[in-house]
């Protein structure tokens, strides 16, 4: 473990899937961590798990970022927050199609309130949890950072596009602020300890928790949405990245701004492996690695889903000095270990 750093880092959504993995990496790298989470899609027990892994229990506040008065009182209490890693957001594509106002209100207002606090309390840096959904269904694959945005396929994707525009404009207007948006592809897997992983409240919206819960008998059947896409096996293709690799990218991006190595006030990077796997390939890899069968059925496409996307990660590899290390087999193995041994 590294020596204690001076920087205090606020992590919003820090008890969630990617948030908790990033908190572990931050603590292991010597940062002091403060978590804000409203626990709408995570559990308080995650704090115990983080402490068990790292030996450190981060400061925790349960609050809604859309309430600026409560947020301001938190900033007053926690002096000298050096930087923010902002995960907290509503993130289910299907739900966003059904309830767009919830997504616009929660995802946009929470970011704007944090930026107001950054100005008021002289917090200079933010790593923003963006998404490959900003690209929509791209005309060419793989997508790099110069790929133009297409019209978003869902309100969720649109909120990520708008949030990046808010960050760009705010950083341009206030030169003391800087931000890096990490456009991640599809995070899966779990920490090797099986103490933290992806455990959505209610019905999962992401593929891998649905695979693991079906394999474990919690759910009777996995529905694969769409079997008539223009892909080799007809199912959608995604670029899956291990949660630990993704967490490490946040720490590297954070350090880039703290050490003032960023080349502009607003930067953005694709965070993926650069490999595309179909839904069926992913299910088959899970079965192969873990020796478990998954009961699945092919059903109609789901509104808001795109056909295929995978990353060109050259910029992140070269500029950040970051590269994904874990392959699909390890992603599927750790996801199953988490489901069978660790899930809260």
UniProtKB/TrEMBL annotation:
Its cofactor is NAD(+). It catalyses: UDP-alpha-D-glucose = UDP-alpha-D-galactose. Pathway: Carbohydrate metabolism; galactose metabolism. Residues 10-333 form the NAD(P)-binding domain. Pfam families: GDP_Man_Dehyd. GO terms for molecular function: UDP-glucose 4-epimerase activity. Its EC number is 5.1.3.2. GO terms for biological process: galactose metabolic process. The keyword Transmembrane does not apply. SUPFAM superfamilies: NAD(P)-binding Rossmann-fold domains. It comes from the Bacteria. GO terms for cellular component: cytosol. Keywords: Carbohydrate metabolism, Isomerase, NAD. Belongs to the NAD(P)-dependent epimerase/dehydratase family. Homodimer. PANTHER family: UDP-GLUCOSE 4-EPIMERASE. This is UDP-glucose 4-epimerase.
């Amino acid at each position: 473990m590294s020596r204690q750093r001076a920087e205090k880092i606020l992590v919003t959504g820090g008890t969630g899937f990617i948030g908790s993995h990033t908190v572990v990496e931050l603590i292991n790298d010597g940062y002091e961590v403060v978590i804000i989470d409203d626990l709408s899609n995570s559990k308080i027990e995650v704090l115990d798990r983080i402490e068990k892994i790292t030996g450190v229990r981060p400061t925790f506040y349960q609050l809604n970022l859309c309430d600026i008065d409560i947020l301001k009182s938190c900033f007053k209490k926690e002096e000298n927050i050096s930087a923010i890693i902002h995960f907290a957001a509503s993130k289910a594509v299907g739900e966003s199609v059904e309830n767009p106002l919830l997504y616009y209100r929660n995802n946009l207002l929470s970011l704007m309130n944090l930026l107001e606090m950054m100005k008021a309390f002289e917090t200079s840096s933010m790593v923003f949890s963006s998404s490959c959904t900003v690209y929509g269904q791209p005309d060419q694959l793989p997508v790099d950072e110069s790929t133009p945005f297409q019209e978003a396929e869902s309100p969720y994707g649109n909120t990520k596009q708008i949030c990046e525009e808010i960050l760009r404009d705010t950083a341009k207007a206030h030169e003391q602020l800087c931000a890096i948006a990490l456009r991640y592809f599809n995070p899966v897997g779990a920490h090797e300890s099986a103490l933290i992983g992806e455990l959505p409240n209610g019905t999962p919206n992401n593929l891998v928790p649905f695979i693991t819960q079906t394999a474990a008998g919690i759910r009777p059947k996995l529905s694969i949405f769409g079997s008539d896409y223009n892909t080799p096996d007809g199912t959608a293709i995604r670029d899956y990245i291990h949660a630990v690799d993704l967490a490490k990218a946040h720490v590297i991006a954070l350090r880039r701004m703290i050490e003032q190595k960023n080349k502009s006030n607003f930067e953005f990077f694709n965070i993926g492996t650069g490999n595309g796997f179909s839904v069926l390939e992913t299910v088959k890899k899970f079965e192969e690695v873990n020796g478990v069968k998954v009961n699945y059925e092919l059903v109609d496409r789901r509104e808001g889903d795109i056909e295929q996307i995978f990353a060109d990660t050259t910029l992140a590899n070269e500029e950040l000095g970051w590269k994904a290390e874990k392959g699909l087999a390890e992603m599927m193995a750790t996801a199953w270990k988490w489901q069978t041994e660790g899930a809260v």
